[in-house]
Amino acid sequence: MLRLLFLGLSLLGLSTFAAVLPEDRADTLYHRYEGGGVTIDGPSILVRKSIGDSVSLTGNYYVDNVSSASIDVVTSASPYTEERRQKSLAVDYLRNNTLMNLSYINSEESDYSADTTSFSISQDMFGDLTTVTLGYSLGDDQVGKNGDPDFSESTQRQNYRLGLSQVLTKNALLGINWETITEEGFLNNPYRSVRYRDGSGGFLTEPEVYPRTRTSNALSFKLRYYLPYRAALSGEYRYFNDTWGIRAQNAQIGYTQPFLQAWLFDIKYRYYTQNEADFYSDLFARAGETNFRARDKELSRFHSQTLGLAISYEFARSGWSFIDHGSLNLSYDYMRFDYDNFRNLTVDAPAGEEPLYSFDANVWRAYLSLWY
Amino acid sequence: MTKFILPLAGLCLLLGGCIEPWVKPYERAHLADPIMSFDRDPVGSAYIDHVYESREAARGAEGAGGGGCGCN
Amino acid sequence: MFQPIVPSHKFRLLLLLLTLAWSTSPWAAGGKAMAPDFTLKSLSGENLKLSELRGEVVMINFWASWCGPCRQEMPLLDQLYKRYKPMGFTILGVNVEEDSQAAKKLLKDLPVSFPILFDNRNQVSRLYKVSAMPSTFLVDRDGKLRFMHKGYQSGYEDEYQRQVRALIRE
User: Fold this and answer.
1) Which CATH number goes with the domain that contains C109?
2) In a domain, C118, yes or no
3) Cα–Cα distance measured from residue C84 to residue A321, given in angstroms and rounded to the nearest whole number
4) Is there a contact between A15 and C21 if contact means CB atoms under 8 Å apart?
């Protein structure tokens, strides 16, 4: 029975269609994040070139230059600068209506090194109306600690992805994605600590202790709709949960409006909300109150909002030398984070009565894209 | 009866000729428009995804391919 | 009354289904069916009817400005046209877009010498059961459909050339 099914699949070659490789392009981006006492900027460069009809190579170089005096740092350490470099290489292979991708990403900074290898396979079916994608990633991280050469820990991570892209109508596209991530090893930050009441209105600190495993699941839906006067409406929703007790949701709406032949304008709004991890507390009652303890604001209860604006200008639309067309882009995102149970310790107050922390950030992306 | 229908339906589906695509290949002008792409600027969107992932507990399920011109 | 399906019959069933699926294509009559006739407006303004080209080998290429492989193929088709036109060969570039603006603009940047027709209401696309972009059909001097190609990949133009030469020599 199964053999017959496979026979049917292979004979599908008679009436199947093929897909196309991702476009050849080169992008140079400058990114800048300023918020919460942190400034991170740097370049991101991508180059993609196809070789023949079946293979495409992509290379990316990315740098984060960090100047941090963030709330975590200010209250327990001194401001620092850091550089993180990331290099990646990917290969796409196309065969009829199957697209395979193999990629390797390496990220390096003075106290953290990460290596991730990923594989994915995409299949177009039903007259190219449906695309099913399966992906797997394997990550291996080495965690160090600045100023402590004997400190060495590691983390292993596996990602499982399943995606479905479906053409609904001539004007609508739906994307559904599922991702499960399992991690094992040293999952916390060697510099961060938690605080507990000292019994006299103040607090003392002790190192944070995290579980050595974490499994998370995320399910997202994306919709894109073409408006008759040439514009696009987009909507996204994602639900997330993990074994640390965190549940999160985010929703986003966007609108893309072309104008004056060569210009594109984008506006988007995103809302994100999460609850705290089971072992999170801004202020523990006493030392070693629980087996696992965290005071990382990333694991607290908070919500964030983003308003994004982007403008793009397309040039050389009829080609120029070896360039097919290009675009100049600028985008600005305003983000605001409001914490419900993480307090701002830069303000002098009795322990547990400090104001709740919140901050906003300005994120810039300026980039040039070329297609050839 | 079910022993007959199930494999038949399965083969029919697989053969694709039984399911007529309701959007024909020549009707994909709008879907092929770059403004309808899920990921028009991969470098920019990878960066913004990274900004969120490093500040939020949630991660994953960001990607989606497909749509487009459906050529070849 | 259905007979219970015995394992040895399943293979025959698969073949039957395949033939049925295959029979929905224009090749059902053994690969020599008449190419469906049509009349479309050309870029130069006048109407062009397929049956008026009887006696010539005709290549019908369905394309769109938004289709990458179609754009890749056009200059190669132009070369083919220029080479075999004196021997009684023509290409009809049928544009399938509802709005011809983008196609006309592309033709300004990428001009071709063969006739371009506009199938704005997709009547001809439906008639030819176009199931891939681009789609190329070859019609012989008697007006019969002889070859069909779905999509375009490098190297297809060699196959086109072989088939055109064979049809010209008939």
Assistant:
1) 3.40.30.10
2) yes
3) 31
4) yes
